[in-house]
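Supplementary notes for students who missed Thursday's class. We covered one full example, reproduced here. Read the sequence, then the structure, then the short commentary at the end.
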Amino acid sequence: MNKPLFSNNRLTRRRLGGVPLRVPMRVIVPNVVTLLALCLGITAIRFAIEQQFTQAVLCILGAAVFDGLDGRIARALKGTTRFGAELDSLADFIDFGVAPAIVLYLWSLESTKSFGWFAVLVYAVACALRLARFNVTLDEEASTGPSSRFFTGMPAPAGALVVLLPLYLHLSALALPNLPRLVPFQIAYVLVVAFLMVSRIPHFSGKTIGRIPREHVGAVMFAGAVAILLLFTFPMEMLIVLTLGYFALIPLSIRQARKLREAEDVGQIH
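Structure (token representation):
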């Protein structure tokens, strides 16, 4: 008697051709958040084409928020998968590599044609290289040693938000004019951010922030609420402040990483 095509054993019910027949929601939810971030990144490109640059900036900001949430949701739900990691990298390249490059080019850098396009190409390539390096060294950066406190090179979401600083200055209350003579400085700025992304310069990692002492919880919650309200009320001005603050942290992260490395070397010698 011929065997039925689909048997009732547990293995067949779970897998058909090596593909799971049922995927738990704890695995699906983080990937949905990643796809929402991807949709925002692509929508930012659409707004840039329509010359609606404020909306384009807000879409990239929203993508950065979702990018910060998807990994944490996956870890909280114990739903991390190889598929999710690959999807996250592809979405990050669109959200933080392609979208900011197109926004900047359509806003200002297209006036110089080849030079402006060269700058945004370098930035997009730097973002791709940064993401590829992060994927290769994922286990190393997720370690519990001193190096886990730092990213190697500027992270892609931070790079996307930092590289848009000239646009923030234009859209803010400062209303910095988009003059042709400023375009060479904008190109130089984009290239500097691209260099920071592919460099070996350490940057503080927010993933290793520990628990907050109980006596400081109220102050931290109040400060966080105020910062969010200011971001909603004065988005461009707050993004300027956050960008400048991030730049100010880079020398501190370099100094702190050097101290930890020296202390680690001394411990290994002894």
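Commentary. DSSP finds eleven helices and four strands in the chain. Residues 31 and 246 are 28 Å apart (CA to CA). If anything here is unclear, bring it to office hours.
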